[in-house]
Amino acid sequence: MPDPYHVQVATTDLEDLARALELLDARADLNDRYRKMLHESQALLNEPQIRLTQARGLAKRLMVLIKAAGPDFPDTLGRQERDTLTAGTEKADDLVFRPEET
């Protein structure tokens, strides 16, 4: 596998992450520190391409933000929103735990 620092990822391939971050922005009760992390992540996704290492970092941030939203957060969501969160989580898992498949 090539050096992930030099591999570029189209942000269009990260739409599930972006939608999950948007959902957290709209629905999660996050403190200022987590909200700043969320907005920085969203800003990075406005670029046409980012490094694979950045994409993995975004995936890890999503995992942290979901935990910060609280263990009951998914239960507060409707079916479609839960599906959005699940899709984002699955993409994050792929980037972090199965990078060779990404």
Question: Can you put this structure into words, describing what you see?
Answer:
- The chain is mainly alpha-helical and 102 residues long.
- It has one domain (8-101).
- The protein contains four helices and two strands; from the N terminus they run βααβαα.
- It has helices at residues 15-27, 32-44, 52-69, 79-97; strands at residues 8-10, 49-51.
- The protein is globular.
- Strands 1-2 form a two-stranded antiparallel sheet.
- The relative contact order is 0.21.
Features:
globular; mainly alpha; 4 helices; 102 residues; two-stranded antiparallel sheet; 2 strands
Proportion of helical residues: 55-70%
Unreliable stretches covering 5 or more consecutive residues: none
Specify Rg, calculated over alpha carbons: 13 Å
Oligomer status: single chain
Structural class: mainly alpha
* Major sheet: 2 strands, antiparallel
What is the residue-mean pLDDT, rounded to a whole number? 93
Compute the separation of the termini in Å.
Answer: 11 Å
Order of helices and strands: EHHEHH
